[in-house]
């Protein structure tokens, strides 16, 4: 198995596992048969910080479109809307996270997965996702500085 790629967020590392594919909206997708298991990337968890509430606005089995609102996540930083990464179908949600979303913070690439998803889209490779991070990091830093000032 190839070693994880790493994106440096200032002094913090954001791992980019090479056994996953990615969306531009900072979700990882891991092939599981004909479906993908989907979760937040280390980059998105680092920006959100401590996630403590998760709620879905669609039901399992729902056909969704890329960038369609599918839920909300609340963290120590903000309340954020969650969007579908691609056109496809939400198969199931990780029910354990509804009672205790701490798995997102502690095991984001494992038990902290969000939902399973069927799509015909072609997700980004780890290398392509790293390019997305590098291309948007300056803008992200400016946004974060604006929140602090």
List the helices and strands and how they pair.
Blueprint: E1 5-9, E2 12-16, E3 21-22, E4 27-32, E5 35-40, H1 42-48, E6 51-56, E7 63-64, E8 69-75, E9 79-83, E10 88-93, H2 95-99, H3 102-106, E11 115-118, H4 126-148
Antiparallel strand pairs: 1-2, 3-4, 4-5, 5-11, 6-8, 7-10, 8-9, 10-11
Q: Tell me the CATH architecture.
A: Beta Barrel
Could you say how many structural domains there are in total? 1
Q: How many whole angstroms does the radius of gyration measure?
A: 15 Å
- State the order of secondary-structure elements, H for helix, E for strand: EEEEEHEEEEEHHEH
Uncertain stretches of 5 or more adjacent residues: none
User: Could you name the CATH class?
Assistant: Mainly Beta
Terminal residue distance: 43 Å
CATH topology: OB fold (Dihydrolipoamide Acetyltransferase, E2P)
Content-based structural category = alpha+beta
């Amino acid at each position: 198995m190839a070693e994880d790629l790493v994106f440096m967020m200032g002094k913090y590392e954001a791992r980019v596992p090479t056994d996953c594919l990615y969306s531009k909206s900072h979700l990882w997708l891991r092939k599981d048969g004909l479906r993908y298991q989907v979760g937040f990337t280390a980059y998105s968890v680092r920006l959100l910080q401590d996630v403590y509430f998760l709620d879905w606005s669609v039901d399992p089995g729902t056909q969704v479109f890329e960038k369609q609102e599918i839920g909300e996540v609340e963290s120590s930083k903000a309340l954020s809307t969650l969007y579908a990464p691609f056109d496809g179908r939400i198969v199931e949600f990780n029910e354990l996270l509804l009672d205790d979303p701490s798995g997102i913070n502690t095991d984001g690439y494992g038990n902290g997965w969000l939902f399973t998803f069927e799509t015909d889209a072609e997700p980004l490779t780890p290398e392509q996702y790293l390019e997305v991070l590098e291309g948007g990091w300056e803008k992200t830093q400016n946004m974060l500085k604006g929140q602090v000032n």
